[in-house]
Design brief:
The protein is α/β, with parallel strands linked by helices. The protein has 6 helices and 11 strands. The longest helix has 22 residues. It starts with a strand and ends with a strand. The mean pLDDT is 95.
């Protein structure tokens, strides 16, 4: 049986390494045009889509069973940056789902769900997602499960922009700690401040009584 992983982030490469232990022939694509050029020849049973922020073309979702992943209490909080929004809400965990992809954003039927722990920095959370994705995919390869429709009224999130990583209107040390950690991942715009011609970027935050401790990188500001 043939399977494809569609991804374009380092976490996806880590996921692909884990998938190789499952039975079947596995291929990875990071470009939609390359996928379109090869998919009909490869004829995958499933196309798994992880750490991929673009919409999968209808030529793919309408002809192949495509499986995506989303961390929120679906149908609530469909859309972008769900981990960051959940941390800003103060949630300790969120439901994490494997869903069948269609041309609506995060609207597909659900195969599996479990809870995703939101403790630690964003990098740690994304690596937990890698683990859960690999577990879900292993089950799908083994049992080829049915999926069920989402129930309820959907709400939608907007993907955070790089400008929104600037530290503003933070009211407490805990809020500051959460703000820094939710942006602390590879290839993500880190929390920052601009001051007197310099940009201060913060990572590796911890919170202690009366203080937040973090690493800071200082560069010449472009602003």
């Amino acid at each position: 049986m043939n399977y494809i992983l569609l991804t374009k982030h380092p976490w996806g490469l880590e996921l692909f390494e884990r998938l190789k232990r499952f039975k079947g022939n596995w291929r990875i694509f990071s470009d939609t045009d390359e996928l379109l050029a090869n998919v009909d020849t490869y004829k995958p049973r499933y196309i798994f889509v992880g750490f991929w922020h673009d919409r999968v073309p209808p030529e793919i979702t309408e002809n192949y069973e495509c499986v995506g992943f989303h961390p929120s209490d679906l149908p609530r909080d469909r859309g972008g940056s769900p981990i960051q929004h959940a941390i800003l809400e103060g949630l300790p965990y969120v439901p994490f789902h494997a869903i069948r992809l269609n041309q609506e954003i995060d609207a597909g039927e659900i195969y599996f769900s479990c809870n995703l722990n939101l403790a630690g920095c964003a990098e740690e959370i994304y690596l937990r997602q890698v683990h859960l994705m690999s577990e879900f995919i292993g089950l799908m390869v083994k049992v080829e499960p049915p999926c069920v429709a989402q129930m309820g009224t959907p709400t939608f999130l907007k993907r955070r922009t790089p400008k929104e990583s600037e530290i503003k209107n933070v009211k407490s040390l805990m809020d500051l700690y959460d703000f820094i950690r939710m942006l602390d991942a590879e290839d993500y715009p880190h929390a920052f401040l601009n001051y007197q011609g310099f940009r201060f970027e913060f990572t590796n935050s911890t919170i202690r009584t009366g203080k937040v401790i973090a690493d800071v990188k200082i560069i010449q500001s472009k602003v």
